[in-house]
Amino acid sequence: MTKSALQIARAAYQPKLPKALVAGDVKVVEGAATQSVADQKAIQALFPNTYGMPIITFESGEAVTLPAINVGVILSGGQAPGGHNVISGLFDGIKKLNADSKLYGFILGPGGLVDHNYMELTADIINEYRNTGGFDIIGSGRTKLEEESQFEKGREIIQQLGIKALVIIGGDDSNTNACVLAEYYASKKYGIQVIGCPKTIDGDLKNEMIETSFGFDTACKTYSEVIGNIQRDCNSARKYWHFIKLMGRSASHIALECALQVQPNICIVSEEVEAKDMSLDDVVTYIAQIVADRAARGHNFGTVLIPEGLVEFIPAMKRLIAELNDFLAANAEEFSHIKRSHQRDYIVSKLSPENSAIYASLPESVARQLTLDRDPHGNVQVSLIDTEKLLSEMVATKLAIWKKEGKFVGKFAAQHHFFGYEGRCAAPSNFDADYCYSLGYTASMLIANGKTGYMSSVRNTTAPAAEWIAGGVPITMMMNMERRHGELKPVIQKALVKLEGAPFKALVAQRDRWAIETDYVYPGPIQYFGPTEVCDQPTKTLQLEQAK
Ligand code: FBP
Known about the structure:
By secondary structure, the protein is an alpha/beta fold. It has helices at residues 5-11, 19-22, 40-46, 83-97, 110-114, 123-129, 148-160, 172-187, 216-237, 253-262, 270-275, 280-296, 310-313, 315-330, 332-336, 340-350, 353-361, 364-371, 387-404, 421-424, 430-448, 502-516, 532-535, 540-546; strands spanning 26-33, 54-60, 70-75, 102-106, 118-120, 163-170, 193-198, 241-246, 266-267, 302-307, 414-419, 454-459, 469-474, 479-484, 487-492. The structure holds 1,6-di-O-phosphono-beta-D-fructofuranose. Residues 77-78, 80, 171, 200-202, 247-249, 375, 382-383, 424 line the site of 1,6-di-O-phosphono-beta-D-fructofuranose (FBP). Mg(2+) binds at residue 172. It is an enzyme of class 2 (transferase).
């Protein structure tokens, strides 16, 4: 591998660990029994072996050597900066317990477990990937682990390699499946532990015990750097409105965090759109009004941040998507035989009148997205919908009408951007490098202590890393029942932006001023070397959430 100068220098970075993990072995402190966030009876019935377990906290203990253990690791779903550090933390943790411990990586995600596609991750390999972005050490994939036959295929290779525990690094869906797998192996008494790690740039796998998912910090800083650069360009030329869509699937955490970092003129938050029951036209009117207000002051430029999941949060669109989800789940076979050119008409003829009318009115590309290109979890692949173009076209149409009515006096020219993939494999910030290494190391301690069905947890993350609190949270604690593919299923509750939460309130308190004044912030690139206030800042979201 040819390495950049930064990569070479960065390889020497020693991630910071919570104090309790540095000492050597750890003492396990168990809290009270836990409950799921909702639907307790149903979740308990589905997870009789892994429900109600206590929260675990690690404290410094005596250093001990345990018998060697073999561990398997899987990277699941979308890439997020820091995945390699989770693996290196896990590797260092099990090696510290016993130098003969081995780590096996399953190739290209959960599919690697089922297909028995794996490699041993030796020290030489691990050292090549410390503090680097990407998931390329073993690759990632979106195969869902949910069938008993897959669990059994997994068991075969796990037992063949003498693996004691499997660590699944993934988002809410992957950790849901990790929990189902943990329960299955526990019910069969196979003696195979399953531990999850909270990953996703989307930032929507978080709760009281999981303060943030890894990768969110680096991805938001990467997007904020380029949005800042665009804002400086925008404020220099003063002739374009930039419509910037940001990844994040459903939740608007990324758009909100970037807004707090760069102070754009407009930031749409999907959760607010839903709560206020706004229509697509309401969103367009909100943007157009700010464009017109700025134009009245001679400012024909600005920036609009748009969360990629927006269309799913517009109530009328949401009703349409819900009906499509159920319809396509029930009629997948029939739909697969319809010619591509007839699919739109077919759907129009099958939906209820209200949803049929909305579906028929959508531009072709958006309509196609909603029915055809779904991920293996059945989710609409919102990252492929051109919401930024849809909105700017509709804003242009409205402004043209307002111009005739004398309500708009300026010019409107738009540029479009989508920031997503470019943030998912960036070299992890110090925060993510430290957080991920700590999550991996914590996972090794959960394994050493015989735990299964737990997610690795590192808390108190706005304090210096030494003061972080490492432990484990039962995954069942995060679950509720939700409708998926037309059926009620136990799943980890997705954390959306809370409208009563401090980060959103901080946006609301400032957005009217940001809309009219040009008060852009230019965060610049992530810094890996330098003063701690430049290199080690956690996200604004975390800082605001934890400012008590
Ligand atoms: P995960 O939830 O698996 O972490 O994926 C996050 C994400 O980056 C979303 O923000 C985005 O909508 C999606 O993945 C894109 O998926 P793909 O990489 O398959 O195009």
